[in-house]
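Bench notes, bay 3.
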Amino acid sequence: MHRKPVNIDLQGFDAFITCCPLNLRPRNTPVFVQTVHDLIALEYAPHNENMRQFTHRLQACLQAKRIHVSSSTCRKFHDHINLDSARVPLGEEDTVVQPPSLDIPSLQRNSGEQANDLPPSSYLLHNLRSKRKSKPSALQPFRYLLFNSSVEERKNLLFLVKAFAQSGLGCEGIRLCVTGKLKSDAYSKAVKEVVANEPAILLTGYVDEATKLDLYLNALALLSPSLVEGFGIPVLDAACLGLPALASSCDAHREIHDLFDFSNYVLPISILETRDWAVAMKASASLHCHLADSPEQERMQRIRRYLRMSAQIERRFEDQIAQLMLN
């Protein structure tokens, strides 16, 4: 009920940066920067965060410099929080595109434009001998679509598995790979009921970073039908690779679509009808099915492009952070 900030003595530190809004009052440091990722707790009712507490933490950002992870997040912050009451000088905030998240092995990173193919090493893409008849067969490179995200209602996975079932791609040997751990709630139960009747859908559960990289490098397309996002790192990762991404038409995804040459790879689609997604998945699979004929070349191209794009974004990221702190 009361907005009592936590006081922190930072004597001897040059700057203090948070990675999410916190109700803090740092003392004895010249630079205080708060990072605002999203306003999902205010936009999406099923979100599990206390709206009053979240609003108080956003209001605590008013007295600090601010990093917004997207222009849409910045706009929503201005719409929901009264900046006039804080008397914050202009120029004390910036929108900063964060670097993509895929973990490329150091040998490949250091090779740059000479980076070679990175054959899949994950068990998900290798047939391992097993006496268990229920064990699903391995994924085939460029014969599956990828959903890589946490499993919660706003990520819209139930909508996606229904759309995939409508597409009929399973009968053509195209699979849907779903990463992320399902929960024991009603939503995950509904997802499992659809998957039970669709053998072409693979639920992997949690995957480590090496497996995630394998899945991105060998996928036909990434699918991200989120209802709302602060930015959308899976879509950013795909665009940096040159991996086609079918994404919901939320503001954050449209923002990624407008960056660099990403409009060539990101296709925003309305999430009103599963049929629209079924048609788009089918078209994407048909358009890129030839990649299975030369997987080594496609993986190599994706790695080289990712290294170029991530280096460019990282340089701009560092420059913007430095500029914000020095102002």
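Next record in the batch:
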Amino acid sequence: MKKYNMLTDAPGKSLFFFALPLIIGNLFQQFYNMADSIIVGRFVGEEALAAVGASYSLTTVFIMIAIGGGIGASVVTSQYLGAGLHDKMKISVYTALISFAVLSIVMGVFGFVMCENILLALRTPENILADAILYLRIYFVGLPFLFMYNILSALFNSLGDSKTPLYLLIFSSILNVVLDLYMVLSLHMGVAGVAVATVIAQGISALLSFSILTRRLRQYGGQEDKFVAFRGDMLGKMLRIALPSMIQQSIVSIGMLVVQSVVNGFGSSVLAGYTSGIRIESICIVSMIAMGNAVSTFTAQNMGAERADRVRQGYRSAYVLIFAFAVITFLILTIFHGQLISAFIDSESGGEAFAVGNAYITFIRFFFVFIGLKSITDGVLRGAGDVAVFTIANLINLGIRVFISFQFAGIWGIEAVWYAVPMGWVANYIISFLWMLTGKWSKKKIVSS
């Protein structure tokens, strides 16, 4: 496959062919995240599936913090690359790795100690509480590996390389599924087995990613005798982007964790069905999120090269791709929704859970275009370093979802949780889009010579 240059090639083609490995890679990532749920749901039972589902919302909070940190690191690194400042680009990579490694260790300790209290506060059903705590404690022991893998993937993307993370994801996905099956079917470890498998698979991938990235950086040359591994001023530039992104990403995830408490109140069967639905949703939005990340990298590199005109061209091209992905997703869910839920839950033995999961994905299939439009619009603002308004937009998105879920669950039932989802996406898109129209993002400049 030809490698398209984001600074010189046609914006639509460069975005698509940069996003394609991201999409494939994220599908593999979702596949092995989903493998945990499928394997415990089919071979351990409905309660084990619910326990993994209850844990998933909490682990997502920590991974979203890693993604937010990766956004800050990747924007600064991309802008240095676009400006041709290779020495500073390399220092920014090492600064990010050191800073976020320390943060991941602190967060892992916090999660290990506090997970039981958090699950209790979220009204996790008693019959799945012990398994959920066990899953989370194993997960948090390996959090530094999972955290750093996400940071490393973002740094590869900032260099215009979305293929290396893809290859590593394929490797870790296959390894994770093999380990899942071995630990659940042969060692009979249940929920603990899928947690251990995830930590091992992403841990090995993180170590391989670090080794490849350090070798890749040597290709850019520079004054190795003046090598610097950390600079506080660069960390400050990253934090200007990373902190709002980390706050936005983590608060949204915390909000979804709060919404999870509404779902928990309906019992473990409804929780199991909801878990299957959101796992399928997470696959459906992969292409949308990948396009947003591609637009962010495209914007950052072209802003570093002072080409705001190309950013506008790329943004228009991204609309075509988003609508195409939305139509494909809608058709797949229309034809195969029942079969997809059946991968998690037996329609006869888990009747209520199956009905809940099926109802969720048949409703949400109409609205994926809005998360795509939100993602590419946020991607322009993020890549330009104009993060304040898009952060506010995402928080409003969160507020709508939490408010509707809590206020109307007693009236509409569990359906209130998913009715709120497209409402939040639409509000987020409109706010970010209106701010983008002001053109103030095009005046931003994060890096300088």
